[in-house]
Amino acid sequence: MKKSLEWRNINTMNTQILGLLKIAVANKASDIHLMESSIPKLRVNGELIEATNYPMESPEVNREMIMSLMSEEQKNKFIESKDLDFSVTIEGARFRVNMFWQRGEIQCSLRVVPSEIPGFADLNLPSMLKTFCDLKQGFVLITGPTGQGKSTTVASILNEINSSRALHLVTIEDPVEYVIKPIKSIVSQREVGYDTVSFSKALRACLRQDPNVVFVGEMRDLETIQSAITIAETGHLVFSTLHTNSASQTIDRIVDVFPEGAKEQIRVQLASVITAVVSQRLVPTVDGKRVPAFEILTATSAVKNSIREGKSFMIDNIIQTSADVGMVTLEASLGQLVLKGLITEEVAMNYSLRPADLQSKLRSLKNV
To answer: Among 113, 243, 284, 368, which is most buried by a count of CB atoms within 10 Å?
Structure first.
């Protein structure tokens, strides 16, 4: 049977958008997809679900409805650039929006951002991540495919710092997702395109703003990566995200951005500042929800040497043999979720990067 969500009949264009966003929030959807010629779809617990009984209008009317999410200035930017990232807040609910064209039609993807930042316990984050909140300097990367909760994990870490330490937190995002309300810390959240021209320009200015902690929403290019590493080198605590599948792939992605003549130097710089790489997945649970599984790399001397010498292929093995210092393989994390009865073995195998290792891990856990 096709899964669907009931659409409540609403008369006008603006209330249609408002009604759909309310439905998304009420059903704990993570994303909303709006299209000119199709029924809107919501992503709930990782699955796309139609908003049935939606009053399907003509593509022209639907285009007008989608465009109503933007201000006149944003519309002009979108028409010129063909893509646009921004955020909207409606009745206390916040959404990260990406507007784009496909085959001559406008399409829109909205990410639902909860108004309250979840805590460590709410997100089932491992205790190792809480130690990052006590760091004075370093470079921590939260990685994983899109839609796997990276931004939420970082927001939870930053809010924990905000709650426990009197520091200056600077975030540079495109757009700002979670709004962090100052508690003990000063919080400066800068949105690319609104508060600053670009990531790289904001990062260059950042050092004059007396920051203690800097969050770079995403490291997209060489200049941004180089700036983030430089800020970490100058004694600050830097967090950022990357769309990579594992710790070793993360190191390779950073190094590969640089031209051949600069790779050796960036390996040395990266090895000197890297503190941890956390790769996460949101895995379907037996009760239809999702729970995170993690790979955690911490920067031991062996890890730093591997990065410096260009031997990132050794990182997987280092993680497997370093559980005593807090490192965790994705397979070990998935195995623990199976052992706790939160996910099935089949699901664990589907999300594993090394299924043979997972099978071995599951056998050893069952024999304990």
So the answer is: 113
What is residue 168's predicted lDDT score, i.e. its pLDDT?
A: 98
Find how far residue 251's CA is from the centre of its chain: 17
Where exactly are the structural domains of the chain?
4-113, 120-328
Nearest to 120 by CA among 283, 299, 294: 294
Strand order in the sheet with 83-90: 4-6, 47-52, 41-44, 31-35, 105-113, 93-102, 83-90
* Arch. (CATH architecture) of 120-328: 3-Layer(aba) Sandwich (3.40)
- Amino acid making up residue 250: T
The tens digit of pLDDT for each residue in 84-138 reads 998 888 777 889 999 999 999 999 999 998 888 999 999 999 999 999 999 999 9
The Cα 46–Cα 49 span in angstroms is 10
Candidates 216, 206, 200; CA nearest to 139 is 216
pLDDT tens digits for range 294-304: 999 999 999 99
Surface-to-core class of residue 113, CB atoms within 10 Å of its CB (0-12 exposed, 13-18 middle, 19+ buried): buried
Which pair of structure tokens corresponds to residue 333? 């994390």
HSE value, Cβ hemisphere, 13 Å, CA-based, for 28: 5
| Secondary structure class of 195 (helix, strand, coil) | coil
Q: Is the peptide bond before 284 cis (omega within 30 degrees of 0)?
A: no
Q: Does domain 4-113 have CATH number 3.30.450.90?
A: yes
Asked if 283 and 337 count as a contact pair (C-beta separation under 8 A), the reply is yes
CA atoms within 13 A on the CB side of 97: 24
